[in-house]
Amino acid sequence: MPKAHLTPAFVANAGCEVGKKKTDWYDDTVTGFVLECRCGGGRTYYLRYPDAAGRQKQHKIGKYEDVTFAAAKKEAQRLRAKVVMGGDPRAEKVLARAIPQYVELSVMHLDDAKLHQRSYSTTEMYMRRHIVPKWGKVRLTDINSRAVAQWLGEKRAEGLAPATVEKIRVIFGRSFELGARWGIPGSEKNPTRGVFRKPLDNARERFLTAEEATRLREAVAQSQNTQLQHIVGLLLLTGARVRELLDARWEHVDVERRTWLIPTSKTGKPRRVPLSTAALAIIEALPRFKGCPWLVPNPETKKPFVSITHSWQRARRVAKLPDLRIHDLRHSAASFMVNSGVDLFAVGKVLGHASYQSSQRYAHLANDTLLAAVEAGAAKQAAV
Q1: Which range has the worst mean pLDDT, 26-30, 97-101, 102-106, 377-381?
Q2: CA-CA distance, 222 to 217, in Å (whole number)?
Q3: What's the CA gap between 210 and 231, in Å, rounded?
Q4: For a FRET experiment, which of 30, 212, 233, 320 has its CA 20 to 30 Å from that of 97?
């Protein structure tokens, strides 16, 4: 274990002792700072030190040709100070290498979503299109709030809607929440939590008039998707969510009791939807396919539609309702009920709202009904 006063000049001329495979030159000023010279001519800087259990460890600082002497000695001093304070540079390096890249965490996230999340396809799409391309090859500990905030800002600048950007942030953050729960190294700190978020105004009121509803029904009746007219008709008459209907089974429809059971709704609880005479008429007219349990399946695959976006967009263009979303049929079903005098509590029960507050968004629609009530009261008083 030869010692030497390591200097730039000494290191430049140092070599392996004759007859040996390597020679370790230990610095006489920084304890454990070593220049390893090999018989083949290679030279590497190390810090050697005992760990907490007294076992000899070494931490590679860098090759002679890659690191200047001044930088190597400075790093050795830093690492030596860490050892004196109870640290273990090699263990920290091994731990750093154990930190997975985000792509590994994303796979675990999607596996969990398949089991517990009804909107798996949405999560998978956002990850595939937006999150993994940016962060897939980045180690979890290298993802910080500042970088995430800048990335989300770029997404907004690309023209994505604020609600879409927020959805991306939520899904990305969910990965870290799951990782922390599972004990995945590097996921303890969620980089999305420190990102400033502007308040979202998602309020969008679009309710069909009776005349618009008629135009829409005429348009979907002409669709090449023969199931679209049934789907739209039932959405307007039940106020169900589109995914709930696309996944509906014959076994859950009770014609005698005039109810449709939705086993798992957005709230996570089952609910029963009452079926009007008009809704029952549509159900009774639905085509049946042998061995197919689905209420409105894709006629070609005999499985639930993955999406009806294409046929829906064409139908709304034909109906001259370009701004109408499929979810607006649910709002429209509620508006028709409210404007027919049905109270908000009953409407909320039909739609499966978890709280009365959710139904309050339709309160203003009752104005015509309430106006008719006060007019009737005034007329009664005038008659007396």
Answers
A1: 377-381
A2: 9
A3: 18
A4: 30
91 pLDDT tier (thresholds 50, 70, 90):
low
Domain co-membership, 359 together with 265? yes
- Is it the case that residue 150 has pLDDT exceeding 90? yes
Q: Which domain holds residue 111?
A: 102-182
The tens digit of pLDDT for each residue in 203-260 reads 556 888 899 999 999 999 999 999 999 999 999 999 888 999 999 999 999 999 999 9
Q: Are 253 and 283 in contact (CB under 8 A)?
A: yes
Rounded CA-CA distance 318/323 in Å is: 12
Q: Residue 357 is encoded by which pair of tokens? A: 């507050």
- Single out the residue of 352, 150, 165, 182 nearest to residue 261, CA to CA: 352
Calculate ∠ Cα 89-40-76, nearest 5°: 20
> Is there a single domain that holds both residue 37 and residue 114?
no
d(CA 140, CA 189): 9
Give the chain's domain count: 3
Question: Could you give the percent of the chain with pLDDT greater than 90?
Answer: 59
Instruction: Please check whether residue 113 lies inside any domain of the structure.
Output: yes
- Residue range 153-164: mean pLDDT, rounded: 89
* Any domain includes 192: no
- Within-domain flag for 13: yes
**Structure token pair of residue 167:** 């959805």
Average pLDDT over residues 288-308: 94
